[in-house]
Amino acid sequence: TIEEQHRLGTILQEQIGEKEKAKVPVFGIVTAANRRQLVRFGRQFWVQDGKTAVEALKSAKFPAHVQPLVSQS
Questions:
Q1: Cβ–Cβ < 8 Å for 12, 47
Q2: Three-state DSSP class for residue 41
Q3: Pairing of strands 35-40, 27-32
Q4: Is 72 a domain residue?
Q5: Fewer CB in a 10 Å sphere around the end CB: N or C, the chain?
């Protein structure tokens, strides 16, 4: 819903801190009916600390976790 989108955006904005230090991109999976789509949030939603952002999202009842974009082998 629009309300959930606004709430999500607000939480992410709170995690940005100083814009020049926000270096962690944010991705989400949008689910509707039988479809799932990966969405990359714009640069304005990048955060400083992925783990702190995940905790804030979980506290707001959004399912969230940190996952590297590339394998670290």
A1: yes
A2: coil
A3: antiparallel
A4: no
A5: C
For the chain, what is the domain count?
Answer: 1
- Say if 70 falls within a structural domain: no
| CA–CA–CA angle 14, 40, 56 (5° rounding) | 30
The yes-or-no verdict on residue 71 having pLDDT over 80 is no
Tokens 């100083």 belong to 18
Task: Please report, for residues 1, 21, 34, 42, 62, the alpha-carbon distance to residue 26 in angstroms, rounded to integers and kept in the order given.
Answer: 19, 14, 23, 8, 14
Predicted confidence (pLDDT) per residue in 32-64, tens digit? 889 999 999 999 989 998 899 999 999 999 999
- Assess contact for 51 and 59: CB atoms under 8 A: no
Apex 50 CA angle, 42 and 26, nearest 5: 20
Q: Residues in the chain, how many?
A: 73
Full domain range(s) for residue 8 = 2-59
